[in-house]
């Protein structure tokens, strides 16, 4: 490698370094200098539906990957400039032979020749949570499964509020019914089990958590009104069925 070629490669490295530093500076490291809540204008993301932040999470992950790639490439460029200043530039780290100028012209920060360049392997590792979670159904609405599942866990936290709009539930008459499977019993399986451990007002008396939904209470009121109507008809002289 002659002096002119070395000077050309040095200029390429300095140009790449300036471009990388300028991009990281202008983008504030791709927006990672501020928190995600500040970047999207949300006070908190805990009370939002996961789908509401789906696009933001994707963009955040992309910014992390781009920032990591630029920082890693900048480290390689700085290391190449340091090797050039120490007189070790253009020498393969494995075979200690001179790297061809054509390769350095294409990849100025190269540390290896073509023959000894480390191979890039795709990771076969899976997310660690899959060892615990596994792949199976979590919302089991069948009558043959009465154990605590993912649906029960969701219902426990859903009652504290979600970001689902009212039109998400077509049949709900008030905001207390804007939950998934709001007509299901909670804390017990069969209806008679709920009656056996509650008082006259339908409270569980701190034995277990029993939640009577508005649907059930409304049904009781309708039956009560129906009985009152039948009693009124009987008082007027009509025969009750």
What does this structure look like?
By secondary structure, this protein is mostly helical. The chain has 3 domains: 3-41 and 48-106, Up-down Bundle (Four Helix Bundle (Hemerythrin (Met), subunit A)); 122-184, no CATH class; 189-230, no CATH class. Helices cover 47% and strands 0% of the residues. It has 9 helices and no strands. It has helices spanning 3-26, 28-31, 36-40, 54-86, 101-106, 130-133, 150-158, 191-196, 214-235. Helix 1 (3-26) packs antiparallel against helix 4 (54-86). It is elongated and about 110 Å long. It starts with a helix and ends in a 6-residue tail after the last helix.
Strand segment count: 0
The termini sit apart by 109 Å
- Count of individual helical segments: 9
Topology order in helix (H) and strand (E) letters = HHHHHHHHH
Q: Could you tell me the mean pLDDT?
A: 75
Oligomeric description of these chains: single chain
Q: In percent, how much strand structure appears in the residues?
A: under 5%
CATH architecture of the largest domain: Up-down Bundle
Which secondary-structure class do the elements indicate?
A: mainly alpha
User: Sheet with the most strands?
Assistant: none
Helix content estimate: 40-55%
Dominant shape: elongated
How many domain units?
Answer: 3
Q: Radius of gyration, Cα only, in angstroms?
A: 34 Å
CATH topology of the largest domain: Four Helix Bundle (Hemerythrin (Met), subunit A)
Keywords: Coiled coil, Metal-binding, Zinc, Zinc-finger
Protein name: TraR/DksA family transcriptional regulator
Biased composition (Acidic residues): 223-241
Region (Disordered): 209-241
